[in-house]
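Usage

Read records sequentially. Each one opens with the input sequence:
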Amino acid sequence: MKAMPWNWTCLLSHLLVVGMGSSTLLPRQPPQLSQKPSFVTFRGEPAEGFNHLVVDERTGHIYLGAVNRIYKLSSDLKVLVTHQTGPDEDNPKCYPPRIVQTCNEPLASTNNVNKMLLIDYKENRLIACGSLYQGICKLLRLEDLFKLGEPFHKKEHYLSGVNESGSVFGVIVSYSNFDDKLFIATAVDGKPEYFPTISSRKLTKNSEADGMFAYVFHDEFVASMIKIPSDTFTVIPDFDIYYVYGFSSGNFVYFLTLQPEMVSPPGSTTKEQVYTSKLVRLCKEDTAFNSYVEVPIGCERNGVEYRLLQAAYLSKAGAVLGRTLGVRPDDDLLFTVFSKGQKRKMKSLDESALCIFILKQINDRIKDRLQSCYRGEGTLDLAWLKVKDIPCSSALLTIDDNFCGLDMNAPLGVSEMVRGIPVFTEDRDRMTSVIAYVYKNHSLAFVGTKSGKLKKIRVDGPKGNALQYETVQVVDSGPVLRDMAFSKDHEQLYIMSERQLTRVPVESCGQYRSCGECLGSGDPHCGWCVLHNTCTRKERCERSREPRRFASEMKQCVRLTVHPNNISVSQYNVLLVLETYNVPELSAGVNCTFEDLSEMDGLVIGNQIQCYSPAAKEVPRIITENGDHHVVQLQLKSKETGMTFASTSFVFYNCSVHNSCLSCVESPYRCHWCKYRHVCTHDPNTCSFQEGRVKLPEDCPQLLRVDKILVPVEVIKPITLKAKNLPQPQSGQRGYECILNIQGIEQRVPALRFNSSSVQCQNTSYSYEGMEINNLPVELTVVWNGHFNIDNPAQNKVYLYKCGAMRESCGLCLKADPDFECGWCQSPGQCTLRQHCPAHESRWLELSGANSKCTNPRITEIIPVTGPREGGTKVTIRGENLGLEFRDIASHVKVAGVECSPLVDGYIPAEQIVCEMGEAKPSQHAGFVEICVAVCRPEFMARSSQLYYFMTLTLADLKPNRGPMSGGTQVTITGTNLNAGSNVVVMFGSQPCLFHRRSPSYIICNTTSSEEVLDMKVTVQVDRARIRQDLVFQYVEDPTIVRIEPEWSIVSGNTPIAVWGTHLDLIQNPQIRAKHGGKEHINICEVLNATEMTCQAPALALGPDHQSDLTERPEEFGFILDNVQSLLILNKTNFTYYPNPVFEAFSPSGILELKPGTPIILKGKNLIPPVAGGNVKLNYTVLVGEKPCTVTVSDVQLLCESPNLIGRHKVMARVGGMEYSPGMVYIAPDSPLSLPAIVSIAVAGGLLIIFIVAVLIAYKRKSRESDLTLKRLQMQMDNLESRVALECKEAFAELQTDIHELTSDLDGAGIPFLDYRTYTMRVLFPGIEDHPVLRDLEVPGYRQERVEKGLKLFAQLINNKVFLLSFIRTLESQRSFSMRDRGNVASLIMTVLQSKLEYATDVLKQLLADLIDKNLESKNHPKLLLRRTESVAEKMLTNWFTFLLYKFLKECAGEPLFSLFCAIKQQMEKGPIDAITGEARYSLSEDKLIRQQIEYKTLVLSCVSPDNVNSPEVPVKILNCDTITQVKEKILDAIFKNVPCSHRPKAADMDLEWRQGSGARMILQDEDITTKIENDWKRLNTVAHYQVPDGSVVALVSKQVTAYNAVNNSTVSRTSASKYENMIRYTGSPDSLRSRTPMITPDLESGVKLWHLVKNHEHGDQKEGDRGSKMVSEIYLTRLLATKGTLQKFVDDLFETIFSTAHRGSALPLAIKYMFDFLDEQADKHGIHDPHVRHTWKSNCLPLRFWVNMIKNPQFVFDIHKNSITDACLSVVAQTFMDSCSTSEHRLGKDSPSNKLLYAKDIPSYKNWVERYYSDIGKMPAISDQDMNAYLAEQSRMHMNEFNTMSALSEIFSYVGKYSEEILGPLDHDDQCGKQKLAYKLEQVITLMSLDS
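and closes with the structure output:
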C-alpha cells in the first residue's frame, strides 16, 4: 500500500488550560441565583469547528471529532491526545480520489470535516470518517488515537463526498462469534451512482484487512445496499436523503431521515417541493435489503404541524411515563425534536416541538402495512426509489414481528404518517438537539436550542403534562449541535456548539434556597436535606435514610408555629412556645435566633421548643415611617450541623405610632386608645381613668356623615355638625375649633360643643378667589385642645359657592341647583341670592316662583343655513334664554317662514333647540329664524340675525364611474349646492355608498360590496329631497394579481416590484402589505394600466434582537386594493426578504481622506441579495455632499467614482428604505510645488513617457491576440449553430431516403423459423438449453422397471382431473413454492398433456375459473387478473397459446415480425453502434442513443468467403468507426445471409485478415499492441485506426494463435461484443431497479477503462478542452423520430397482422375465439358489465401474455442473434403494443418518457384497431365444444412425440417428493378423492419411486 500523503502528527499531552469551573458546590454558601453558573468548557483551534462527540462508556473518556482533528479528552475536558486529519490537497470532483490515481482537476487545500465518529468496543478502536477523498474512514486505537488502518483503494471505501457533518449516520451491529457489521447511511450530494445512500458493511477484526467496509453481500443482481436511482434527480434535481439519527433495537436497525418530496398543496394542481421526515427500518440480518421499509413521521399540536426532524434520541419509558402511555418501563421510546412546517430544511422555522414515539407502535404500523401489501393492497409507495407506482403482489404468508421481507414487495414505503405524541413546544428558541434518560422512574429529556441554552424537561410531569423545570445558557453562542452525551456516571452532560464543548451537571439542586423552592422546582433529582438546610440529591445528604432527615415531597417540608407570634416593642424576655412539624430528632440540641438581634438556647420538650424573646437592649426601635410593626425571622439552628433548619415570622409591634383613635383600635395588634390623653398604647393601665379607655371603633370620638354643607360666599353663617363620643375638655385643656383649608389657606374658627353628639362652628363669612368656579369643596377638621383631632371617617366637606359665577344669562341662572337658592336679579341683570337683589328696584326671578320665565330670548347661531325645499332638514338653533322646559318652545319655531318641529333629543334647556323642517312653498326662498318662548309676546320672542335659504340641489357627474365588486372605491359626485341640508344618503342601486364628506360642489362617499357585476343607478337623498340625475356606477369584477416580480426585497423594503394582474386601474390608491410577527407594514403602488402597476416593497417588521443575516418569509403578504379581501393575503407567492445591506463606518473617526479622482469604497456585507435566480442587483444611490456618484456593486463593497469636489463632504448611501452615512470624506486639494519637486517630476515624467511607449507597444501586441481569441470564439459559436442546423437537416433527409432503402433491401430473404420443439422449449423453459424433457429418462438399470411402472401410475393420476386440480392447488398454497416453481410446474404439466390437449384445456378452464373467483373474492381490482404470472393457471395459459398459435406464427404473423426485426437491425447498423455501452446513432430508445456527433464514413469491403475461396468476393458495407468484431459480424451477416444463426461460424472464432495489394496480410483485432491508451482510457481498435481504405479486400480465417500485433491472450477474449454488453448490464449497480446507470468499472489491477465511441459520461473525464466538440445533447433526440419514421411501416404491418381477424386468407386461430368467449362467459357469470374490465382481461390473456413476449424475444420464433440495441428498440415497440391494448388514458407532458412521446400520435389509432379486433371476434359465431375438441385432438396428434413424457413426469414428481404430506392431506379428506382412492394410488407411486425400496 502506498504511503499516505498526509503528514500525520500525534500531539501527545497537548493540554489546554480551559475555564475551570467547579461543578460541586459547597453546602454552606450556594452561589447566588443572579450569577451565571460557570461550567468546565473546552474550545479547540479557532478555525476548526466541532462536528461529533462520543463518550466511552467504560472509561468516561470523550472523543471529539472536529474539522481536521480528532481529540481525546478526559472527563474534565483536559486534552489527552490529538490526532490530525487534515487539511490536504483534494478536489471533490476527483473520483476515484487522487491517492488512488492521478486526477486532472485543480487541487486545493481542503478541510477534512468529521462526518461520523463511532466507538467499536469489541475491537477497542474509533471509526472516524471524514469528507476528504470522497469520504474515507480511519480506524484509530482508543488509547492513543494511533492509526490502525485507513482503507482507501476500493469503491466501497468511499462513503460519500458530501461535506456536511450532520448528514451521515452509522450503526454497529455486534456479534460474539464472528465479525461485526456496520450499517452506514449517508447523503450522496447528487452522486448516486458512486455512493449507495444506505448499505451494510463488514467490520473486520484486522483494521488493515482487504475486506474492511466491503458490502456484507454483493453479487451480480443484489447487494447489501440501496442507491438512489438517477431518474429521481430528473423529478427533484437537488434530491438527497439526510440522515439525522440511527440506532439498533431488537432485530432491526433504524435510521431517521429528512428527504425532499414533490407534493400538491390542497386545492392546487402544481407540485411544490417539501421535506418529509421518515423513519427507515432494516433487519440486522438482511443482506439483500428486502426488509427496507420507510414510514413518514411527524407530530401536531393545537393544529400546528411539526414535520421537519431536527434531532432524535432513543431511551426507555420509565415507570411513571410508562403508566401514562400504557407501555412497560423498559420499552423503547424515541425522543424527537421537530420544527414547524415542511418547507425549509436549512432555515427551519423557530417554532419547534419535542415529541415521543413508542417504537413498538411504529413497528406495529409497519407490520400492518406489510400484511396489507402481501394481501396485494396498494402500491409500494416509494416515490424516490421506484419512479413509477409498483402495485403490491399478494402472497400467502404469515407476517410476524420479525419478518424480514422477500424479494417481492420490497423495498416498501408506508404512505400514512405515524404521529408522535407532542409533549412540549417552543416558539422562539428553536430546539436543535435532544438526549434523555430515566432517573428513579422519571423520564427526563435534555434539549439544546438555537441560542445555546439547555432545557431540562420532565416528560412525565404532574397531571400528565411535560414540565420544563430549568433552562440554562450552556454555550456562548448557539446552536447546540445534535450530539450530546452523558458522563459515565450520568451526573454530567456534555454539550457542544460549533466552537465550544461544555460539561453541565445533570442537576443543579444547590441553587434552590428553601424547601418549598427545592421541591417545587420539579427536578426529580432534588430533595431537601433538613438539618443541613440544602437542596441536594438524596445520596449526598448525610444520614438521609433516617426518618424526617430528607424531604422528597412538599408535605414533608418542616413547618413551625410560635405562640404568641407578636409582642410589643416594650415587652422583654417573654416566654415563647414553638411547635414544630416534620422535624427529625433534635437530641443534639437547638438554638433560637431572632435574626441578628439575639441568639439563645432552646429547650426541647417533645415537639415543642421553648425560647425567650430578646432582652430590652436587643429589641429594635421600630421606626414610625415603617408603620406600626417590624417583622423578624425567628430561626431554629441545629447544634449538630450549625445550620438553620426552620424559621417563622415574628412581629414586634409599636402602638404609639398611631395618632388617631380609629387607626389605633383598628390595628391588628393589642392597641388601646386613651381618649383624654389622645395616645395609643399596648397597656390599657396607662390610660388616666376608666372611661377614657377605648377598645372598639364605635367608641371613638368622631363626626357623623351629613348631607352637603352649602355655604354661600361672603355670607356670615354658622356650621352645625353631628358627632358622637365627643370628650369634654378637662381642666387645663383648650376647647374646640373648626379648621377650613380654603385654596391652601387655613382658616380657624372657634367652635362650641353642645354635648357629646353635637358641635357648631361659630358665625363667620368665607370667600375664595375668581369667578371660574361656581362651587368649591373645602376640607373641614374639628380639633380640641389645640391639636387633638376628632376623627372624620365620612370625610365631610363644606361647599362654598357663588351664584354669579359662570351664569351670565337668566336661563343659565335658573338652571342652577335649587339648593343654591340662586335667582335672576333683573335690574343689574345678574344671578344672585335673594338678599343681594335690591327689592325695591327690580324683580327677582327664581325657578320655583310663579313668575319664572326669562324674557329676551336671543339667537346666536343657526346650522345649517341652507336646506332643500322638500324639508326634513334638522336645524340646530343656539342662543340664550331659550326656555327652561321643552314645552316652552315645543310649538313656536319657524325657519324662513316654514314650521320647524323641535325634537326632544336635541333640546338643551336655555341653550339649544334642534328642529326638523317642514316643506317650503315654491314662493319661499329665504328668511330668518323666529321663536317664541311659551308665549308670543314681544319680550319672549327672538329672531336670528342670519338668514336661512332654500336651495335646489343638482348633480352633474361622478368619478370614477366604476369600481370593484368588493367595494371600497372612493367616489366623488359633483353638482351644485351639495352642502345644503343636514343628512345625506347616497345609494348605487340597492347598495349604500358610505358618506365621507362634502362641500357645495361635491359629495365623497365609499362604495360597499355588490354581489354581482352590474350597472347601478346613482341616487342622492339630502334630507327629504331626492336628487334625480341619470348617473350610473358600474360594479366590475374584482382585480386579480397574476404575478409579481421580483419575489424578494430587503428587510427595509422600498425596492421596486412589478405587478401584473387584471382590472388594476379600478383602484385609486393601491397599497402593498407585509405582516410579520403580528406587525404590519404598508407601502404605496402606482397603477400604469389595467394590467400593470409598480409597487415599493413594504418593510418587514423585525424585532431588535433579530439576527440580521437570516432570510425571512412574511406571515402574510398581499395588497390592499380598496375592499378586495381576496388579495390581502396572496397564497401562491413565496415572497422572501433578504437581510439589509450593512455598511461599515469609514474608520473610528468617521473621516476618509482621499486624493481627488480616487474612488470612494464603502465596505459592507449583504450588498447583493443571495437570490436563487442569479444576477440581481439593488439600486444604490450614493451622495457625496449633494452630488450623486456612479456606483459599482459587489457583494462586499460599493465603488463610487468620486465626483469633482474638494473639501469635506458627508457621504450618504441609500438603498430601498434605508439610509446610512459611513462618515465624511475629505478630498485634499493638490498643493503647489517647490523647484526641486518640479525638477524631479520632470525627470520622472521623461522616464514615464519612455515607459508608456513600451507599454503601448506591448498593449498593441496583446490586443491583437485578444482580437484573435474573440474571432476564434465567434467562429466556434457559428460552427456550433451550423452543426445543430446540419444535424436536423440530416435527420430529415435520412428519414426520407432510408424508408425506401430498407423496404427494397429486405425482400427475398428466407425466414429462419425454429422448429416446433425448439420454439416451445424456448417459451416454456426460457434460458435452459438442454432440458430433461428432451432427453430419455436417466435411471440406474436396476430401478428402471420400478420407476417406469411408478411413472405410468403417476401419469394416470395426472390424467385424473380431480387429482390434478388438488395437486396444483396444494402446491400453490405452499409458502416455499416460488414463482419460478409455479412456471416450471405449469410448463411440465403442459408438456405431459401435449398429447391430450382436450383434457389440458378442460383443466385450464377450471383453473382460470377458480383464479377469477379468487381474484374477485380478495377484492383485488378485477383489471389485475392475468396481469402477472403469479399462478400455475396463468403460465399454463401462456403455454396453451404457445402450442396453439405456432401455425398462425409460421403462416401469418411471423413474416411481419421478422421483417421488423431485420429492419431494426439494419437501420441500427447503418450508423455507429458503441461496442461497449451499446448506444447507437439510430435508436428508438432514448437510453441507447449516442448523444454526440460521431464522424464516420461508409466503406465497402470485398470479402473472400471462408467456405469457398474461389467464389466471387462479397461486397460488405461497413463503417470506418466499427470495431473489428463489429466488422466480422457484418461480414458474417452478408456472407451467410440466408443461413440460420445457429449454423453460422461465430465471430469470436474467426480472425479478420486485411489483404493488401503487395500480398501482405495483416490480422486486425479489437485490442493489440497498437491500441491507444490515454489518461487511463483504452480505445478499442476500429477500421479507421488501421486506416483500411474503401474497397479493400478482407478475408475471414479461422482463429490464429498469434500474430505480430496480437496482445497477450488474456485480453484477447475480452473483445467479443457480447462480453461488453454483459459488462454494461451488470456492473455498477446490483439490480436494475435500483439504478440504471451503467458504470464502466476500471480493471483494478491496471486501472484502465475501455471505450469505443463515447466515454461513459459518469466519469466526468472530459476535460474543459473538449467543450468545443460538444453540442446540447437533447438536439439528438430528433434522431429517435428519424428512426421511428423509417421503421413505421414495419411496426404498422406487424400490429395490423396481429389485430385482424382474417389476414391474407388465414383465418383467426380457433384458440383465440374460444378463450375470449370463455372470458366473456365468466364475466357474465360474475355480473361484470364494465367493458373496460372485459377488454383488460382479453388484453392480459393474449396480447400481454403471448404477443409481447414474441415481440420482445423474436429469438423464441426465429434462429437469430439479438444484440442489446435491437433489444432496446424491440422493448419500445413492445411497450407501444402494451399501451395500445390498455384502456386507460395516458396523459403526456414534456416530462413523459420519450418512448411514450414517440408513439403518442399512433397509439389512439392502434387502440381503435384493438377495439375493432375484439368486437369482430365477439361477433363471430361461437365454436362448439365438438369443433374445438376436434381441433385440439388434431393438434395433439401433429406434435405427439415432441417431448419425453417420462422425463417430464419425473420432473413433476420431484414436487410430490418435496410436498408429499401436504399433497396427501387433502386427498384423504376429500370425498371424491376418497371414492377414487387417489391417496392410496399416490402412496403406491411414492413407494415405487423411492430409492430404498
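Summary fields computed downstream for this record:
- Residues 510-663 form a domain with the Immunoglobulin-like fold (CATH 2.60.40.10).
- The chain is about 20% helix and 30% strand.
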